[in-house]
Design brief:
heterodimer, B: alpha/beta, Glutathione S-transferase Yfyf (Class Pi), Chain A, domain 2, 2 domains
Chain lengths: ~210, ~300
């Protein structure tokens, strides 16, 4: 168990709802859920969620801390926002799912091998480096996530797609050498460092 | 037609040699005809996209978008910000709404921006708009139809709106379940919209096309199949992620499901550029992996007087 996770368990004891309200983006909406299930029925990846959103909301209230935070469920969110526009109580469900996934990731208890968690991490590191997406590095990074030989296999599978984009001028063949860089990249680094510092302080993540 | 001017947030995918570079080419041609001036926000950065939340958290993500808004305030004062990418629009607009709603978040964001040498004024007066909003609200269908010199006659097109141009914000006056604006745009360009197309707001998987390819491709299959079922010979979309996902995985889907998909997926701005008389190159048609022979034919023909 990570240090931060221990601290949070200690701090909130059995009140997982309170923990979610205090630390998860838009978490104060959770108790508004009336269990109608429209969100679960509207989700394009609905069948793949171990616990669909409506169930997650009830589990938060029931104090199922570990089951929720270690679940693959929230990582199935495609950010289509169907649940948000259909929720009769107008809960910002997409943001709450993002918030729970982010919180579990911060605590170090999100499922290690979940592909979306790993891709999301890769993506953020990619964009903050220069300030903009470097698409070639992002795709190659994704293919080689599971080691060299898997990377070669995956790369070959994706080669026709890559060549199609390359031929039509939609992929930079020199992307490994550069690209995706803002002039103010170092300013962006400083800004993000500060933002992280403030967020840690506000959410009690600071050590 | 009066000249209109906007602060422009193009976004990462629109850069040269990036996945939506042909979208940008067609937008430039379309704007030239409509006399729209786009003032690019100097040194804009990524919005964090739909997947930035996991590692980026809340404040860092808002800081990224706030930097763009602050740069726009500084260099293009008083101008509304226009984005062509659905995720850029959503990210910037979401941050804009949150900053307006929370003094604490605004103060924290300003503190972070100071580190980037930016003093954010933030009056919250400018709006964050999508290009299709500009077209529909600042021009209107009647005005947009006027410059058509090459109507796209006889082409049946499925209008695939997708998610993030449509939800959670959407375009004013349109429903989330059955938005009509893309069909209307198609129609005034002289083509025939497939009005019964029933997958127009289905999710293509978005960023999860990378991390969960099988699940996403099952979605994409539905989106394409329905277009074929209703007799469409082309799909049109306002979103760079939708465009790429629906276009580039067709061969992989064919292999897996035994289908024979080969349908062009274009941007609304490509249809408009061709209808307004641009060449295939100016409409970015050479950027489509699955080329549209019909549009290329029309682009090569002389304009109707």
């Amino acid at each position: 168990m990570s240090e931060l996770n221990k601290v949070m368990v200690e701090k909130y004891r059995n009140d997982f709802l309170k923990e979610v309200e205090a630390n998860v983006e838009e978490g104060n909406w959770v108790k508004m859920c009336m269990q109608c299930g429209v969100c679960s029925g509207s989700c394009p990846f609905g069948p793949y969620w171990e616990h669909p959103p409506q169930e997650i909301f009830m589990m938060v209230r029931a104090g199922k801390r570990e089951e929720v935070l270690t679940s693959e469920s929230m990582w199935m969110c495609t950010s289509c926002y169907n649940c948000i526009v259909r929720c009769p109580r107008e809960l910002p469900i997409t943001h709450i799912m993002h918030g729970l996934a982010n919180y579990a990731h911060r605590l170090g208890i999100a499922p290690k091998m979940n592909p979306t968690r790993r891709f999301a991490k890769l993506f953020w590191q990619n964009i903050i480096k220069g300030g903009r997406v470097n698409e070639l590095k992002l795709s190659i990074g994704l293919y080689f996530m599971d080691g060299f030989s898997n990377g070669v296999k995956k790369g070959l599978e994706m080669l026709p797609v890559g060549l199609g984009l390359l031929k039509t001028g939609r992929l930079n063949p020199f992307g490994l050498l550069g690209g995706g860089k803002c002039k103010g990249a170092s300013d962006i680094h400083k800004m993000l460092k500060k933002a992280q510092e403030i967020e840690n302080r506000r959410k009690g993540f600071a050590s | 037609m009066a000249k209109k001017e906007y602060s422009f947030y193009p976004g990462c995918s629109s850069e040269r040699k990036s996945s939506a570079s042909n979208y940008m080419v067609s937008v430039e041609s379309m704007c030239k005809t409509l006399d729209i001036k786009l003032n690019e926000i100097p040194d804009w950065n990524c919005c964090g996209a739909s997947i930035g939340y996991a590692e980026g958290g809340e404040l860092p993500r808002h800081a990224m978008n706030a930097r763009n808004i602050a740069l726009s305030e500084k260099h293009n004062p008083g101008q509304n910000i226009v984005a062509t990418c659905a995720a850029c629009w959503l990210g910037a607009k979401e941050t804009h709404e949150r900053l307006s709603a929370s003094e604490q978040l605004l103060a924290d964001t300003k503190e972070a921006l100071k580190e980037a040498g930016l003093d954010m004024d933030y009056k919250g007066e400018v709006e964050i708009r999508h290009m299709v909003e500009v077209l529909i609200e600042d021009f209107g269908y009647e005005q947009l139809a006027k410059p058509v010199v090459k109507p796209l006659e006889g082409i049946k097109i499925a209008g695939y709106v997708g998610c993030q141009t449509n939800r959670p914000f959407g375009v004013a006056g349109e429903s989330f379940e059955n938005p009509k604006y893309l069909d209307k745009l198609t129609e005034i360009m002289g083509a025939e919209p497939v009005e019964k197309y029933d997958q127009k707001v289905t999710c293509c998987g978005g960023a999860l096309a990378f991390s969960e390819p099988e699940k996403s491709q099952a979605q994409i299959k539905k989106i394409i199949e329905s277009a074929y079922d209703f007799g469409a010979e082309m799909i049109v979309t306002p979103c760079p992620v939708c465009q790429m996902n629906v276009e580039v995985y067709q061969d992989q889907i064919n292999k897996k499901y035994g289908t024979k998909f080969h349908i062009p997926v274009t941007y609304y701005s490509q249809l408009m550029a061709v209808a307004y008389g641009s060449s295939a190159k100016e409409a970015g048609l050479d950027g489509n992996v699955i080329r549209s022979a019909r549009l290329e034919e029309i682009a090569a023909k002389p304009a109707k007087k």
